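Exercise 7 asks you to align residues with tokens for two separate proteins.
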Amino acid sequence: MKTTVVIPDVQLPYHSALMLTKIFRVIEDIQPNAVFQVGDLIDFPQVSRWSKGNAGEYATTLQEHIGRVKEEFFAPLREAAPKAALTWLAGNHDDRISDFVNQYAYPLKALDALSMENLFDLEEFGVEYVKGPVRVGTNTLAIHGHEPGGYSAQPQAWDLKFLKRYGTDKNVIFGHTHQPFLTSSAYGYAGKVKPRWVMNVGSIMNPEDAHYIKDGAVSWTQSFAILRDDGKRCFPELITANAGFFYAEGRRY
């Protein structure tokens, strides 16, 4: 049985440090085979298109935020799971560096120093940086959620989008919307049906730090997931937090 802990959107530095610490404790306790971060690990507000024309465009905190990802995410994660395979999936916020270079400084695109691997010292931490879709388990794909384009407000709409794109035999796990859910369905006939599920792992972003949400009213629930794969099928577990705590493996964190 292979166990994978799936960490949702973090968007450091606008994350809940408490939730991140608790997820690291779960990882340390269960020692999964793999840890998969589903994208938007860092927010990169300094190079966001939303910062153009305002004070954020001139912020000098880019290196500080990159350093914090290494110090507050990768270092404690690797300490908690010294043997686990670590994967970081590219999200639309993670892409902001390359998007900025492509639009405003294309000649810099050739600089190896600006690759995500070099900016975040990923080799040092043993982290693989990948683009979705990527296989994370038996018949199970992971994407961040921005890859297909468009946006859906309802779980059923996401389910249909992925069904058309990836087929009836693929489970899909994603993030992007900060709204966790788990849906299931089955396909087949004559009693021979195969279940399929779609899971959004949500986020651990702190709504109070999402300054673009004027009144702090968002339909986000802090959460993460655990996948168990027996080699023939993949079983999802969505774990949601309430009042700053959650239960995993029968234990309160």
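Second protein for Exercise 7:
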Amino acid sequence: MSKRRVVVTGLGVVSSIGGEIDEFASGLFEGRNGIGAITSFDSTELPVHIAGEVKEFDPEKWVSPKEARHLDRFVQFALAASQQALDRSGLDLSREDLRRVGCVWASGIGGLQEIERTHRLALEKGPRRIGPYFIPKLMINAGAGQIAIRFGLKGANFAVASACASGNHALGLAFRAIQYGDADLMFCGGSEATVTLLGIGGFCALKALSERNDDPLTASRPFNVDRDGFVVGEGAGALVFEEYEHAKRRGAKVFAEVKGFGMTDDGYHISAPIPEGTAAADAMLLALADGKCPPEEVDYINAHGTSTPLNDVMETRAIKSAFGDHARALAVSSTKSQIGHLLGASGAVEAVVLALSVDRQAAPPTINSLNPDPECDLDYVPNQARELRLRNALSNSFGFGGHNASILFGRLD
């Protein structure tokens, strides 16, 4: 059986540089910065007071007031992004066989805000005050389930949780569902809302976050020698994947073709990568092999690029290992410099970036490129976006647990 072709026909985003896709796209290529002081809780007793918050999100633009009360913030983000993706796709779901339409949705942590809120309530007023929506709001599959309910989807529907690789895993599994004939259309992506006391506090305890509180705009500085950790972001990214002939018949706009997917694991450490990046390199090579794409035909990589001491050197080494001499010709950038690290949703938002980059034939910048690390010596598209001939592009995501996932997009032939 030959594998079917898959294309991207819908995009949606909620982020700190734009609550909708058009605002996000303009902010992305302009190098806008969405990192600032935390406003959603009192961070006084923590060493970190900055994040990539979504500060003007109104859930009632996307769901009724009653629905909003029954949804954790990460699910509100999921519904907002997926509705945008549907609207942008031009699909009329009433004309589709909804048994052939599914959803794979990612989150690394799920309903952390609901867990904190209900725990405080139970301690203060007793366990009888735990509400009936507590479990349905916090569970990681709430995003996938609520998207299916919103659109009446009857096809494959499930959640993925693999830390910061979750978003890319969701995309890869949705891609394969269409490739192998299990679906014609898939909503896929991820959402995260962990700018909370426990979320920020937990990463502080790991010593994983930047403490550059006095200069939040330059706190996330991937591939710089003085980087001191990542900045937590929040939001969602959603894509509509569609079987190519189905999209062609209805005259859909195609942002990019989904060409390949690869995944591996380090099998090494729960929170640190293999220093040489061997398993990460293998994930990239598997994506290229899946897409039958020679390394020299890749022009851009959206890097995992967390701004942590270990990741950025490892990823640079992995790219060199996978691409050899061609690594020097690649444009590589980290959009986490603009919006922070969205954890389980990062791969999803960065896949939206990848699709926009292929469509616009431009690479977004790595902002805050101030003091290059000699060990990170590739072309990281410093500070300004760049127009370029972009045939194929990769997006990398690596997560605690050693999870590595790479997805390959390209121009539609």
